[in-house]
């Protein structure tokens, strides 16, 4: 039997009417059966298997009937191809599109937006699990955390800029924000003074052309 042909009127089905028995008929015949009943006086029975259907689903022809295996394959979510229907791993609720799942997660669970911006999907059931992820995978502002808030950044550079701009007074004494500056100086003037005052000439010859240099760490925080 061709599933695209109505078993009652024998016309090609434009709009499907399907009951719990999964035997499709056309919408026109379904309305007639439910309104007037069949020739034997029954109302709401499938004309193919005589199953009593309390309700039916109306579908356009684009929605083809499927077997149980075909339906399971159709619904299975493929994250790479973005095909199928995604499922929340916490609620086991199925969603029509991936965007619907994202909306659900933002309302019911906790999504790492930093990972999501890099096309990595990290979801947590509890807020403290998300905060632990922030600390282990990203860069958290210690000053904001001390004040009872959470500010997280994808790079250390952006965290440093945030701290310098928003917490300059608190971050001023943090050595991790100090920048190394190298200073070069000449020792020739000192050696000349040393030799004129009776120093050893061998020491002068060894160090006459030697320049000294050293590094210091300067606080670069904004005032």
What does this structure look like?
This protein has 223 residues and is α+β, with helices and mostly antiparallel strands. Among the domains are: 15-65, Herpes Virus-1, CATH 3.30.40; 179-219, no CATH class. The chain is 36% helix and 16% strand. It has ten helices and nine strands. The chain has helices spanning 27-36, 68-75, 98-108, 113-117, 127-137, 142-146, 156-166, 168-171, 188-196, 201-207; strands spanning 15-18, 25-26, 57-60, 110-111, 123-124, 139-140, 152-153, 178-186, 211-219. The longest helix has 11 residues, at 98-108. The chain is rod-shaped. Keywords: Metal-binding, Zinc, Zinc-finger. InterPro entries: ZNF598/HEL2 (IPR044288), Znf_C2H2_type (IPR013087), Znf_RING (IPR001841), Znf_RING/FYVE/PHD (IPR013083), Znf_RING_CS (IPR017907).
Write the layout of secondary structure elements.
Elements (H helix, E strand, L loop, with lengths): L14 E4 L6 E2 H10 L20 E4 L7 H8 L22 H11 L1 E2 L1 H5 L5 E2 L2 H11 L1 E2 L1 H5 L5 E2 L2 H11 L1 H4 L6 E9 L1 H9 L4 H7 L3 E9 L4
Antiparallel strand pairs: 1-2, 1-3, 4-5, 6-7, 8-9
């Amino acid at each position: 039997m061709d599933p695209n042909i109505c078993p009652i009127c024998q016309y090609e089905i434009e709009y499907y009417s399907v009951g719990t028995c999964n035997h499709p008929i056309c919408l026109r015949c379904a309305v007639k059966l439910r309104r007037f009943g069949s020739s034997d006086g029954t109302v709401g029975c499938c004309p193919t298997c005589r199953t009593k259907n309390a309700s039916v689903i109306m579908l356009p022809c684009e929605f083809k009937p499927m077997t149980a295996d075909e339906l399971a394959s159709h619904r299975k979510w493929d994250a790479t191809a973005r095909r199928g229907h995604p499922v929340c791993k916490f609620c086991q609720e199925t969603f029509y599109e991936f965007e619907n799942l994202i909306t659900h997660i933002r309302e019911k669970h906790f999504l790492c937006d930093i990972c999501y911006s890099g096309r990595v999907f990290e979801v947590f059931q509890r807020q403290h699990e998300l905060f632990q992820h922030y600390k282990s995978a990203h860069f958290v502002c210690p000053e904001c955390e001390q004040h009872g808030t959470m500010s997280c950044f994808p790079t250390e550079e952006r965290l440093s800029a945030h701290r310098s701009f928003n917490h300059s007074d608190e971050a001023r004494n943090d050595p991790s924000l100090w920048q190394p500056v190298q200073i070069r100086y000449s020792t020739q003037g000192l050696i000349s003074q040393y030799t004129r005052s009776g120093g050893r000439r061998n020491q002068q010859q060894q160090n006459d052309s030697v320049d000294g240099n050293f590094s210091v760490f300067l606080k670069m925080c904004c005032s």
